[in-house]
Amino acid sequence: MAATSSQSVYRATTTAPVNIAVIKYWGKRDTTLNLPTNSSLSVTLSQRSLRTLTTASCSSIYPAEDTLNLNGKPQDIQSSKRTLACFFPLRIVSENNFPTAAGLASSAAGFAALVRAVADLYQLPQSPNELSRIARQGSGSACRSLMGGYVAWRTGELADGSDSLAEEVAPASHWPEMRALVLVVSAEKKDVPSTEGMQTTVNTSDLFATRAQSVVPERMSAIEAAIQARDFPKFAEITMRDSNTFHATCLDSWPPIFYMNDVSRAAVRLVHDINTAVGKTVAAYTFDAGPNAVIYYEEKDSELVAGTVKAILGANTIGWEGAFYERLANVTAPGVA
Ligand code: DP6
């Protein structure tokens, strides 16, 4: 970005992928710095199917105020402290190629792309790990979208949050057979946004403390070992159990929070039926703060898992709204697409 004239417009365009947690982040111990109550781990999905594309630009010819345009619509950023935490006097244009705020990690890809675009614009030397500290303040899960493959967000111990950042546990190339099928049960905005839902859980659920303090730390070590060993049955069992524990703490919140619906539960039953029918674990479901399912499986079981899920859920399920599927070809690293 060589400075030639004061009329110049400086621009940086980048994309960021969606990540889907297999060990869920749910709960903040510090809402200002956005520090989590527990570590989490996710798989970064291919940008071919789901990604945010963001351009950051600045120029002396722009009006003094910052602007953010998401999917063609101007956004109110002055009232959003979390956006301003990642902001400078800039013009940002961002576009998701998937439903926004429907429990498909749009805030993760969105804030990761924003931070990366701004860092690129100013040619900042920070590594993805360092940038994850900034992205975390926009949306917690965003810190995991700055890297590819299998990414852990360590809760950290320091009060200032400087050690609460994301790191790559294994690159996508470590386990190239991994696939994810996204079932868009509903593209509607979720009833209870994650930020609000998780604090209701922190403040009211009796199950919450056990999950955060003893269940998740053990699961983090176990799933990292399963990833290193490419042990799909182990990876799958931990993934499904953690999704279930997370949704159990939502149900245990007061008032209770329901993210899964009848179609989600049909997907859970179907995955267990497939695994029982073949006598081994070949598929794993996980649900974020919404009814949409993500099903992980290995390429060799693609016909069995993706084929069966599409045929059975698509054809027979009453209440199937979305009726479309994203078959992610691969799990790849992020970057400018
Ligand atoms: C269920 O990252 O959206 O998807 O930090 O308040 O923006 P904020 O929350 P957010 O929460 C994601 C919750 C989750 C689990 C996960 O992605 O780990």
UniProtKB/TrEMBL annotation:
Q: In which pathway does it act?
A: Isoprenoid biosynthesis; isopentenyl diphosphate biosynthesis via mevalonate pathway; isopentenyl diphosphate from (R)-mevalonate: step 3/3
Q: Which organism is it from?
A: Penicillium chermesinum
The keyword Nucleotidyltransferase is assigned to this record: no
Any idea of its EC number?
A: 4.1.1.33
Q: Name one GO cellular component term.
A: cytosol
Q: What is this protein called?
A: Diphosphomevalonate decarboxylase
Task: Give the UniProt keywords, A-Z.
Answer: ATP-binding, Lipid biosynthesis, Lipid metabolism, Lyase, Nucleotide-binding, Steroid biosynthesis, Steroid metabolism, Sterol biosynthesis, Sterol metabolism
> Which GO molecular function terms does the record list?
ATP binding; diphosphomevalonate decarboxylase activity
* Catalytic activity annotation: (R)-5-diphosphomevalonate + ATP = isopentenyl diphosphate + ADP + phosphate + CO2
Q: Which domain of life is it from?
A: Eukaryota
Q: Which residues cross the membrane?
A: none
